[in-house]
Amino acid sequence: MKIILTHEVSGLGTAGDVVDVKDGYARNYLVPRGFAIRWTKGGEKDVAQIRRARKIHEIATIEQANEFKAKLENVKVRLATRAGDAGRLFGSVTPSDIATAIEASGGPKVDKRRVELGSPIKTLGSYQVSVRLHADVAATVGIEVVAA
Which of 44, 96, 99, 108 has the most crowded CB, counting CB atoms within 10 A? Predict the structure, then answer.
């Protein structure tokens, strides 16, 4: 099935790309979550608009991405959340929580869709989280999850 991506999807493409995927993947995952829309002849007009919007929000050059990376890696992020006696969290830490914590710690504003978690964070402790800034540049941010 041919689709138009509306958000960046790891391993598939960026917003505005027209890609072919399996029907079930598009129908059951990408379209319901808003990551893509079905491709139509009229949808080609949307591609130009999506690409213009992406250019406004994305980091254009590798030099800019490296500057942003340096700012991000110097930020000490401390995330207070509710936890039980054994250090287990009530729920888990989401990319949205991390993006908000980075900004609250004095760091630059980060889009939650750029935060990549290797595995869910469900206990207190220190973690390393990757933030994809550019196709070739990713920053590693240290996060300390503490009890509130």
Answer: 99
Q: Which residues of the chain have pLDDT under 70?
A: 54-60
Beta-carbon count within 10 A of 116 CB: 13
What does the DSSP assignment read for the chain?
Answer: -EEEESS-BTTTB-TT-EEE--HHHIIIIITTTTSEEE--TTHHHHHHHHHHHHHHHS--SHHHHHHHHHHHHT--EEEEE-B-TTSEEEEEE-HHHHHHHHHHTT-----GGGEE-SS-EEESEEEEEEEE-SSS-EEEEEEEEEE-
Dump pLDDT digits (tens) for 23-63: 999 999 999 998 898 888 877 777 777 777 766 666 667 77
Do 39 and 57 touch, CB atoms closer than 8 A? no
Count how many residues are written for the chain: 148
